[in-house]
Amino acid sequence: MPWLSLTPTITLSNNDGCNICFKPGYITYDIGIKMGTPIFQADALVKRYGIEVFSCNFPLIADMSLRVKSILGRFFINIEDYSIDEIFCEIDAPLDQVMEMCREVRRVIGKGLGLPISIGVAHTKTLAKVATSFAKKHPGYEGVCAINTDEQRKIALSLTSIGDIWGIGKEHKKKLNRRKIITALDWLNKMTSATARKTMGGVVAQRTYCELEGLSCLELDMLLKKKKSIMVSRSFGENITDPNLIAEALSSYVVMLTAKLRKQKSKAQAIYVFLETNRFREQDEQADDEIVIKLPVASSSDIEIGYYARLAIKAMFREGLRYKKTGIRAMRLCGEEALQAHLMDKRDRKKEDRLMQAKDKINERWGANTVYPAAIGMGKRPWHIRQEKLPPYWSTRITDIPVVKDWPQNSTADVIGEIVPFIYMKPLPGIYPTVLRAV
Questions:
Q1: pLDDT tens per residue across span 319-367
Q2: Angle between helices 349-366 and 302-316 (to 10 degrees)
Q3: Ramachandran category for residue 409: left, alpha or beta (phi over 0 → left; psi -120 to 50 → alpha)
């Protein structure tokens, strides 16, 4: 939503519980809203600063992410699709060309999608992440920050908390803080790469240390690797005491899980199912149960996996408890072509696979859950996640597509002049890196 570009906003997690993305807008200093801050703790700040609060619209986020990555593909050749909101690009060019290219990328994405992006570039992936945080937090960089010299690197690391470094978790942060290591530069000054590996127990810490020194240890991964396990879990919109409603919720997660399995052409040989109460309600009786089921034959069918998942819920459910969360993990994944049959198996698996393929095609063409198992239920779904501040599905739902009203006269040429260059822009030659400006 471009009109919110200068407005501070908060995006909430599942069930509108806590902040997962805070955009400061016009606020130029830290007001204390961190990742994971419960929204009720930020109520006073929301009112004081006029912060807009939104539920997380997952389909919209995924769609905009794909659009951003499509535009980036016009500018860069070697790209690693790291996550839904992060991309690494391997680039090489003089600094002036780099900065010009990055500003053009921001302009095109900002104008075409209305999204502000932050670009941080350095000689290593970890330093590039540091650069991105400066580009995001300090308006003076105009969204593009580059760490190019050793002096810039030291200044940036001296201003970066050790806990904000990619790969440094809370426990490692506490351990380093006890050694009087507060900033990333303190870590480099007070330890060597060998002692970092010994103290923090692994080669990952040593690689992070070397990356901060400017030595690249993490290569660009341009091939999408198949996941070794896939997990889908959600908290319920309210506490549930009915086993049938819990089974409905889990069946919906099974549909999402099996769709992911089929997308990467895998099948699960076993499933893990858990069911737990609300641990924050200390006055209630608590339970946290889990079951692992080995499937007779590896499967990606929501009919078969859903059957075993519901059996697991039936076995774990306890009368009188107020359940808050359930989930399922597909384990021991194998390729579709490497199946071990079972002598006593009577399922028509080829027919079931064709059914799943037909369902996937219908849902891909007409939208998610156009066709779904009856096990999900067709009535009220109290287990569905709470999204009281959900923004419209601007780009993924036909009824929510913005409509231009009061079209001004004699403006067609102006509008076409803005749209045509964006649509027909050709990929630019070469691979261009971004580098940090002085911090």
A1: 989 999 999 999 999 988 777 777 778 888 889 999 999 999 998 888 7
A2: 100
A3: beta
What are 82-131's pLDDT values in tens digits?
888 889 988 888 888 888 899 999 999 988 888 888 999 888 999 999 99
Q: Are 62 and 39 in contact (CB under 8 A)?
A: no
- Residue spans per domain, the chain: 2-56, 118-213, 230-376, 402-437
Tell me how far the alpha carbon of residue 12 is from its chain's centroid.
13
The whole-number pLDDT of residue 355 equals 93
Q: Is 331 helix (H, G, I), strand (E, B) or coil?
A: strand
383 φ, ψ (degrees, to nearest 5): -80, -15
Residue written as token pair 């050749």? 77
CATH code of 230-376, in short, is 3.30.1490.100
Comparing C-alpha atoms, which of 28, 27, 62 is closest to residue 46? 27
Quote the pTM value.
0.73
| Best CA proximity match to 238, nearest among 246, 250, 226, 228 | 246
The first and second tokens of residue 334, run together, are: 């194998």
